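We were asked to recover a plausible sequence for a given structure. The inputs and outputs are reproduced exactly as logged, with field labels preserved.

PROBLEM: sequence recovery
POSITIONS: 245
GIVEN STRUCTURE:
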């Protein structure tokens, strides 16, 4: 009996896990990165997110050299242009950004920081193949600038080992789970890593990292994970909420 309870899986959308969620990681500003391609797509994404229970969104366009026009000023302008077109949708949209920790990152620390909504958390990521040599200097730079680094999807950095995760947490990084890592969206290795980090209590926050409508519809059509994760995931969602209340 115990075995069955431990291994029981649920469809997290059908089970209502996303009901009331504040999503703090997605790419909904049209045509500024690899997320939404148009206003119409952004509207479809928000309507679909709303339909699965998401109630509030912080959108987090990429800031890194692949998108040289993106910085805190231009993205703020893009949001202001976008908002009047979404006023009829019943879902508040705030701005943050997902900053790549690379050689161009420090220039952004000198500008107004684009933290998540009005919180003091700065969303950061590394490449999926390796961290920059000066990773800890960059993390210290975030803290010296008055923000708290929140590392996006640490489970997807398969190059990291346990010692690296512990060191990052000790250096002051909060970890943000990509919710759909748990359902196998990025493969079994990432799912397994996500389960390990979740079971060790290393995550503080959770996001969906939604990019495009086709992929999002497919993702939510079958999103299964272990039922026993409901409580820890709800705890992470409460932490998300606590950023904005
Ligand atoms: Fe992202």
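RECOVERED SEQUENCE:
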């Amino acid at each position: 009996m115990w075995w069955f309870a431990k291994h029981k899986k649920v469809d997290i959308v059908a089970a209502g896990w996303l009901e009331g969620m504040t999503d703090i990681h997605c790419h909904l500003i049209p045509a500024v990165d690899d997320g939404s391609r148009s206003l119409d797509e952004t509207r479809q994404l928000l309507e679909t997110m709303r339909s699965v229970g998401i109630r509030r969104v912080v959108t987090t366009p990429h800031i890194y050299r692949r998108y040289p026009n993106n910085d805190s000023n231009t993205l703020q302008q893009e949001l202001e242009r976008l908002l009047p077109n979404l006023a009829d949708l019943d879902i508040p949209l705030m701005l943050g950004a997902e900053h790549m920790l690379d050689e161009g990152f420090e220039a952004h620390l000198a500008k107004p920081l684009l933290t998540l909504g009005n919180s003091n958390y700065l969303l950061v990521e590394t490449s999926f193949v390796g961290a920059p040599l000066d990773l800890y200097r960059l993390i210290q730079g975030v803290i010296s600038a008055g923000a708290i680094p929140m590392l996006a999807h640490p489970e997807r950095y398969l190059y990291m080992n346990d010692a690296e995760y512990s060191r990052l947490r000790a250096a002051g990084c909060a970890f943000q789970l990509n919710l759909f890592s748990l359902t196998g969206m990025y493969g079994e290795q990432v799912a397994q890593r996500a389960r390990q980090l979740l079971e060790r209590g290393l995550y503080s926050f959770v996001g969906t990292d939604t990019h495009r409508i086709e992929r999002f519809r497919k993702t939510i059509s079958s999103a299964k994970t272990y039922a026993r994760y409901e409580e820890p995931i709800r705890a992470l969602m409460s932490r998300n909420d606590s950023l904005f209340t």
